[in-house]
Amino acid sequence: LTAAPTLSQGDNLSDTLQRVFGYRDxxxxxxxxxxxxxxxxxxxxxxxxxxxxxxxxxLPALIMDGVTIVVSPLISLMKDQVDSxxxxxxxAAFINSSQPREVSYQVLRDLHAGLxxxxxxxxxxxxxxxxxxxxxxxxxxxxxxxxAHCISQWGHDFRPEYAALGQxxxxxxxxxxxxxxxxxxxxxxxxxxxxxxxxxxxLLSSFDRPNIRYTVAEKLNAANQLRQFLQTxxxxxxxxxxxxxxxxxxxxxxxxxxxxxxxxxHAGLSQQERAEVQDKFLKDQIEIVVATVAFGMGINKSNxxxxxxxxxxxxxxxxxQETGRAGRDGLDAEAYMLFDPADIGRVKHLIxxxxxxxxxxxxxxxxxxxxxxxxxxxxxxxxxxHYFDESASEPxxxxxxxxxxxxxxxxxxxxxxxxxxxYRLKQHFGMHHVIDVLRxxxxxxxxxxxxxxxxxxGIGNEKSSEHWISVTRQLIHLGFASQDITRGSSLKLNPAxxxxxxxxxxxxxxxxxxxxTNTPSSRHR
Length: 525
Ligand code: ADP
Ligand code: ZN
Fold this sequence. Notes:
By secondary structure, the chain is an alpha/beta fold. The chain is 41% helix and 14% strand. The structure holds adenosine-5'-diphosphate and zinc ion.
């Protein structure tokens, strides 16, 4: 390595941007962040994925005297970034556990010789005793902490080794610190600043991803719904997220049988298998990756056209992050989620089994926000942006609610049919059995119990079972009935059901949206 010329302070920032990186204009927020760094100030930078966070520290690193330390948890990203910096002629290097010892020794020698402008390093390593000792001998220009949400237990990806990064500001109070993340609600922001020991100066750029169309469809027959959705995609690339490894394997296999080029990806596969799937996906040799959340951190593929959530994500941050992998090239992309309210109960149950305490409360809170998003009857984008404290004043026109507003109808009769059937079944049976009886099923589990003799047998045969599922879920949601989880999810009537059954009140329900609400968008290339 030879020392890259340090640019003089007098250089116009835009000139440097143009000359070194070849970009004409700064993106939203970049220049303000860079100016703060050059003025020696600390900043928490919140920009959505793809917003151009790296530029915020790369450019000032070139201008400032000394080395900029970039703390990043993602080994694969480190290498990519360093490679492309070297290509543009910037003296960058990384140190991590994946490289041979000789290589890291060489990097350290270059570092002490002042030949490196940007050094990427993992949080564990930067905090190690050995490296702390070295740091004290270096001329440090700035410290940047990427993926800073990992420092907060409010973040969706809390990593204990990040928590200790606060030591850096203590050790180097006068060196500007820049923390960067793509995702942080109010609480996360606060705790990042607190843990890092910086004044809460937050630079927030918009989270809106106008090219992503958000759709939440009620999960009725998930397998069919997924297939129909994928058929509208005409071989585009995309990701299908599922909540468990088993589900990932099942869905991937089913899609292959249906003729899609799909592969599974989860933490149960070997390192090599995972790398292969990732590589093929990047090279467009696989259409669809069916994956757990293990897939994606650091995926830098710009032409992902859709992200499907087969199961509800655990938080809005996770949902935003995962859907954000679609459409990074700015072209139209789809975020399609299948939503079964019962999934919320399942996740709740999992959380209940974790250790009680503040962390558990955080998880409950996040899940509730996610549920509220899925159940929203107003513009999805407004709900999403509002969660990140950004207000979108107008409905977006590019989500399922805007494109296909939920219609209300007088559901009193439907409700009476369901509720009286629950009553006739002595509140001993679950939703699917109730619906089988309503629709006049002659299946053995109905007839053997004599349920085909009930007065409510067949009174709902003019409507599909999907219709009745939707109605029943609404009745549960609105508090007319409830599911007894301890007894096979059998349906029970609540006191509020009485006036409905006696026709004392009328009940408006949302018209079940059975068809796939999603229409293929025309602007795809
Ligand atoms: P993030 O880390 O926020 O997800 P990146 O730093 O990886 O985003 O930047 C995303 C892409 O945007 C990169 O390809 C980067 O080169 C590009 N980029 C960054 N700043 C600019 C700019 N001012 N003009 C054009 N492209 C930019
Ligand atoms: Zn909308």
